[in-house]
Amino acid sequence: MDRRSLPFALVLVLTLLLSGSDAHAQSAETQQRVAEAAAVVRTMSTDPQVSVLIQQAKGLLIVPHFIKAALIFGTQTGPALMLVQRNGRWSDPAFYRARSGSFGAQIGAAKGALVMILTSDKAVEAFTVKAPNWSVNVGAGLTAASYSKNMHPAGSRSDVVIWSDSQGLFGGAAVGATRIASDERANQEYYEHPDVTSQQILSGLVANPYSNKLREVLAIQRASK
What is the dihedral of CA 185, 54, 100, 105, to 10 degrees? Predict the structure, then answer.
């Protein structure tokens, strides 16, 4: 080998090693998001009423770590994933990012898990048809209600029921400003497919065996029905 070509060869080898390491780290990150979502579902299932909502749900949008920072203008953000249930079987997760904002006198910060329980086909359609961007607001034609153990039965019939393990994390005012955007990079990394879309994932056209960890937790909800 020409000595002059050695530096180039070394650079090429180092580039391949670094890119491989980066891909592994990114794959581990998406797998961690799936594992964290499974942990959130386990927490939710300790409440019998929530467990029933999950059993009957058309879909779930799970945000394991939803961060709220507020002063005058409040912002909430967090990585999310979405699954739909068809004929008693849950799909693989599609990755999203949730973000919302609201004005008003609000001081403080909070962090916790957030789950949007989609109870109607119309709510699921908003993801599968109107993706990659989706919003919970009046213009979307969806009704939404925050979950509480004492919520009125009509609330559980809303298109979207919002559950959180942290009080004050997600108030009714913020619901109207929430935007959900497809996390295309995470989807591509998790499914190892450069052109995969959220619609394809939720339709069952692609799969990742690691998703079974989350599906198994959701299957327990149906088995206990």
Answer: -150
**pLDDT by residue (tens digit) across 172-181?**
444 444 677 8
> Which residues on adjacent β-strands are paired with residue 160?
118, 144
What is the tally of helices (H) and strands (E) in the chain?
7, 9
Is residue 145 within 8 A of residue 162, CB to CB? The reply is yes
- pLDDT tens by residue, 24-39: 455 789 999 999 999 9
Interval 125-146: pLDDT, tens: 876 776 555 666 545 677 888 8
In the chain, how many domains are there?
A: 1
Tokens standing for residue 12: 């090429």
β partners of residue 85: 90
Tell me the whole-structure pTM to 2 decimals: 0.78
Name 78's bridge partners: 98
Containing 146, the helix (H) or strand (E) segment is strand 144-146
CA dist 138 and 78 (Å) reads 22
Between the CA of residue 125 and those of 134, 159, 224, what are the distances in Å?
10, 11, 28
Q: Which domain holds residue 49?
A: 5-223
DSSP string for residues in 69-118? EESSEEEEEEEEEEEEEETTEEPPPEEEEEEEEEESS--EEEEEEEEEEE
